[in-house]
Amino acid sequence: MVTTVDDPAAPPGQHAQHGDPVHAPADLAEVTRVARALVGNVERVVRGRREAVELVTVALLAGGHVVVEDVPGTGKTTLARAVARSVGGSFHRVQATADLLPADITGSSVWDPASQRFTFVAGPVFAHVVLVDELNRTPPRTQSAFLEVMDEGAVTVDGVRHPVPDPFFVVATQNPLEQHGTYPLPEGQLDRFAVRLRLGGLDADSELLVVREQLAGPTVDRLGPVVDADRLRAVRAAVRTLHVADPVLAHALALVRRTREDPRVRLGASSRAAITLVRCAQARAALAARDYVTPDDVRALAVPVLAHRLSLPASSPGGTAAEALVAEIAGTVPVPVQV
Which terminus, N or C, of the chain has the lesser number of Cβ atoms within 10 Å? Predict the structure, then answer.
């Protein structure tokens, strides 16, 4: 089931698309201002989860995507909608089901009797922010429909390539408890997600505040944008220019390579994971108003960026084992003294 919320996605060509030039470069002060404004705006409705909000912001600024693994009712949809409204972008929600087809995601060519030709009708991925609820409930054939668009910012239908709006951001969810009728995400798809996070429970005061605010209606509907799509593209480009010293880069790569060498790991993190780790570290540095990346940035992001990419033996107890393993590795890789 596909639901359109907020502003419906315009047909391809009416959005700024991937590959368009970025004008008016952003400086560090603006990058930090935008990053903190995004965090603050989302926190107005996603209460008591600053770490998760910052991780989502880091992934967004780094040009990646996010998978949220948590039980129903924890605010996953609210989080995705809050991000969409904060960037003034269009938002589509896809409820993953076993009968969902690839064309339901990407769109398809439909015969137009008036023009006597096939016309491409865009699917729900043609939005700035796309929420895929319980992605693992779709069969592998449909899951694969997300691979190209998440990696390249475009879909190919009937041999024709259609760019999606830029910026493009996918938030997918999984329920870690209910596994009946699900299809585990393959390693290649998990590798497309920059960050995996859990929202977790709320403390009593935050939960009381959430319930009180929601009694008057969805608070996310009252959020306004803090940055438009054009400036967000410029901010993303600026994030990638932040300085990464050779020792810091070597530290990040050593951490990733250690996951491949550990005998407890069946399949370690890839080179793509190393690139993503450094890009996310750049975004974290920008959030901290620094124009350079530190080893602490890399270590702080090691678990959310790398753990979901590891494949452990079947006897290992799920994602928590991978997170503990990455945390252990991050604590043993030597930190460069001078950067």
Answer: N
